[in-house]
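Appendix B. Raw example, untouched.
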Amino acid sequence: MSPRDEGPGGRDSGVRRADVCVVGAGPAGLTLALLMARSGARVTVLERSRSLDRAYRGEILQPGGQRLLDSLGVLAGARRRGCHEHGGFRLEERGKVLIDGDYRRLPGPYNCLLSLPQRHLLAELLERCRAYPGFEYVEGAKVTGLLEEGGAVRGVVCRAAGDRPPLQVRAVCVVGADGRFSTVRRLAGIAHDRLDLFDQDVLWFRLAQPALENVRIFRAGGSPLLAYTSFPDSVQLGWTLPHGGYPAMASQGFAHVKEQLRRAAPHYADAIDAQVRGFGDLSLLDVFAGSVRRWARDGLLLIGDSAHTHSPIGAQGINLAIQDAVAAHPLLCEGIRRGAASEALLAPFAAQRGRDVKNMTRIQIMQSRMMLSRGRVSSLVRPRAAALVSRTPAYRSLLRRIAFGNESIEVRSDLFDESGSAAA
């Protein structure tokens, strides 16, 4: 039965019933929603925003995420909406390439870094989800509470957009996929440890510039700069700053900030002069690592940024989010079959993904120290040490781990039941 057609005690009374209630329509939430809908589950997705056309920072999709989305039948459609391939990434210092992370040497067909606007990926996922009658998408919905019985989560309460009355969604499992400052995590009382393992913040801005063949990290002196092509015709740049240092710099005025940008990116100086016109053109990302102490409670699971937060170095956020969704899918199918998604049932997922996340965080810390180090000694020694390491077989193995993550995670297409889809 569709959550749209509850009859008595259902839609008209402000109550939905679903097998899975996903809070947050990001890459993790919508990937999981599609997996569950294709498996015959009733899925309700609650999204606070009323539009997919909003600002996103992360756009780079690693090969591991591409592979899983392709297995789910989503990648080709998302690519058709517009994207840009990068052959790899390069660490450069004053015109000299220190590290050449050549993804074309990885096994195909996903041997590239894909700059894919999140709105394109989310639009494709949402369109595919809507082909299933058991799927419901509620936008403009702000979760305000959890429904609990006997210590187990049984659903959520949310405030709907406009003047509509509060809505209850009762479900076998509530999945928090609502980002690094997750409301679901807070309401569930799950502790989240913020770990300031990275000594940078990142100031993002865009310039209309010719496309780049590779993701590039420039060390021109001072603060390193990340650059990649963002579809359709711009380059997105991330200027790394000492953690917490931006307010003091900004207090000296926009002209001062702009001059520092020019010095960090002399090859973009003219474009910065012409196109960066005020503080509104800049977006600051507070860079930190974070992880939950519990991924699950009875009737509740956290995935994506709600469970773990990462640095933009290595472009792992979307990759890990998609892997979370794929790994959670079979256990949630089993929970629906049993009529309860207990913390014990979800424990293998939490253990596996906890290990994967810790391993990737360690790699990101190493990458950050090698590529973005400051200080007179470290800024000279570490990038050159990285250049030497990058020429060894061990680095090629590391590059594959960065690109694919946990390669044992596979889409369980044997759990799909397409009989109820519009395309069936």
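End of appendix B.
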